[in-house]
Amino acid sequence: MKRTPDIISAARGQWKEIQPELDTSSMEVVGRVLRAGAVLRQRLDTILGDEGLNRAEFDLLSALRRSGEPVTPGRLNSLMVASGAATTKRVKQLAERGLLERIRDRHDRRSARVRITDHGAELIDRAFARNLEAERELLAGMNTKQREAVAGGLAELLRSLEGSPAPAPPAPSQLE
Amino acid sequence: MKRTPDIISAARGQWKEIQPELDTSSMEVVGRVLRAGAVLRQRLDTILGDEGLNRAEFDLLSALRRSGEPVTPGRLNSLMVASGAATTKRVKQLAERGLLERIRDRHDRRSARVRITDHGAELIDRAFARNLEAERELLAGMNTKQREAVAGGLAELLRSLEGSPAPAPPAPSQLE
DNA sequence: CACCATTACTTCACTAGTAAAACACTTGTG
DNA sequence: CACAAGTGTTTTACTAGTGAAGTAATGGTG
């Protein structure tokens, strides 16, 4: 079954002419992930904008919301695949908007824990639902079987790259 | 066959507790693409740095190199999934480094075409090979079958999102 | 041809991200 | 216990990206 080529197939063909001996097979996965990610981000970021959030803010509030309890900046870094400096900035700005707050960690004074506010939870709940809807629309060109196939493969890839997700550290019994 | 969950499965489980009626199935694809992309980028960008290029520069030189002929800024935008302002900046900086040059387009004076220099081609050839090697290492945790499966699914996704790639516009017979 | 709509690109003002440095705290070792 | 090594986070200086505005050119229409 011959398929219309996607842009990565086309690119591989071009590289073959330039450097015929080069093994470009990794592009089949990596090139496609990076490109699909860029396209999806470009399209979904505008939807988030309508909800008053950018990608960074959305990711932070999502991570906090689904964690269900306060999270350390270090853990946020890895949940969001961001640098410490980026996380610090994001937390500061959303704290100023009253969407989250910092709570001192009595058990480790190098750190504070970040907790979403009620206002923040309301905002992310709405934005998240809206985002899911937009995602579904973007995936509408694929049938269920195709979506499940790529989802399974991507899960393999993530496990291969990251291993299994670390459980959240135990919440201290008292935080003030 | 029950698999160790990846972070997106875990996240979906968390959302199910917060909003049980929400259909989060799109996260299986979109969430994973975005996350895998972020992880891959984080890891590969350091490799590119060793070759003296950042992601933006790498993408631009790659696009030019594999095109084999001068490209308009507008086409570079879509090849790289970047805004016009970003492309302008990238072109300016790499031109200053002598890695590419701008050629006037006699057929449309709103535009110039961007051509990679010999120096630029040497640099990207080495960087590209190094990048492929790093990609292969990152994919080493997956077997061939798994890689082919996810590659196929991702190709479907890209075609669904972007359609088939536009061919390069004909090269004018004379450019000066 | 004159004029208007559209297109292609650049400029501008601002924001988000990063590595490295700085600082404070925690843990390990003798 | 004292000190060194390690860890967690923030600060800093800088860079890359963006939307909107600006500018020039092209194409369409009467």
TrEMBL record, chains A, B:
The keyword DNA-binding applies. SMART domains: HTH_MARR. One of its GO terms (molecular function) is DNA-binding transcription factor activity. InterPro entries: HTH_MarR-typ, MarR/SlyA-like, WH-like_DNA-bd_sf, WH_DNA-bd_sf. Residues 26-159 form the HTH marR-type domain. One of its GO terms (biological process) is response to stress. It comes from the Bacteria. Pfam families: MarR_2. The keyword Cell membrane does not apply. Keywords: DNA-binding. This is DNA-binding transcriptional regulator, MarR family. It comes from Actinopolyspora mzabensis. The lineage of its organism: Bacteria, Bacillati, Actinomycetota, Actinomycetes, Actinopolysporales.
